[in-house]
Design goal:
Blueprint (H helix, E strand, L loop, with lengths): L22 H18 L6 H7 L4 H5 L16 H22 L1 H22 L8 H17 L4 H21 L7 H18 L9 H30 L1
Length: 238
């Protein structure tokens, strides 16, 4: 992923707060509203409430409720869960949105969450939810930026910070049965791939071949995870 043009038009010293419409704030608002509605309808830790509001539930996905691959990234289990993820989304999201722009940022966020939920559907039978699939995708996208712009000190500093953070989260996650590690891994994979094929604004056209390749890789992985999850969940139903 080296060899991209230098990112001359981005001033990494400026405020990370978007000047206009903020997708980060929209995503924050959505997950907070959903959390409040869940609290009023049985509580966010209630299994039936989680399923009702769209948590990742493999049997339902296998029966055609594919929207459960998107909804979980806006659903949280308990106050601590939404608090930590909301703080992370605010600080990480404003940085990444200011670099990519609102539309590109939204696509990376959603595609990361989708891939994370697909991988969780394929290999994790538990009910799960949370924005962390998308957040791991943003971490991975920041690391990709560090590879793409090796001479931009601001990008390099951000990439190093998030590289350490993502490895620490993976390390501690594997020691907790409550953490959806496959969701995190899939989110990181989706974010890394999406960061390449979506690309920064004004990316050189010479990179279009690489972008197409990574787009194809994304879809191949998504289809593989969907097929694996369907087969495993389908066998479990009968």
């Amino acid at each position: 992923m080296k060899g991209r043009v230098m990112m001359r038009s981005y001033n990494t010293r400026k405020s990370y707060l978007p000047d206009k419409f903020s997708v980060t704030h929209l995503f924050l608002a959505i997950q907070i509203v959903i959390f409040l509605l869940m609290t009023l309808n049985g509580g966010s830790t209630n299994v039936l409430t989680l399923i009702l509001f769209g948590a990742k539930f493999n049997p339902a996905i296998a029966q055609g409720e594919w929207w459960r691959l998107i909804a979980p990234m806006f659903i949280h289990i308990g106050f601590t869960h939404i608090l930590v993820n909301s703080i992370t989304l605010y600080y990480l999201g404003t940085q990444m949105e200011s670099l990519y722009g609102s539309l590109r940022f939204a696509l990376i966020y959603l595609l990361s969450g989708l891939m994370g939920n697909l991988m969780s559907f394929a290999f994790n039978d538990s009910i799960s939810a949370g924005a962390s699939t998308s957040l791991f995708g943003l971490f991975a996208a920041a690391i990709v930026l560090g590879r793409q712009f090796p001479y931009n000190l601001g990008i390099q500093q951000m990439a190093r910070s998030f590289t350490m953070l993502i490895f620490l989260n993976f390390f501690f996650g594997f020691f907790s049965a409550a953490v959806d590690n496959f969701g995190h891994l899939g989110g990181a994979l989706g974010g890394a791939l999406a960061a390449v094929f979506i690309a920064m604004p004004r990316t050189s056209k010479s990179q279009n071949g690489q972008r197409l390749l990574f787009l194809i890789i994304y879809f191949v992985n998504a289809i593989f995870f969907a097929y694996t999850g369907f087969m495993r969940a389908g066998f479990a139903l009968y």
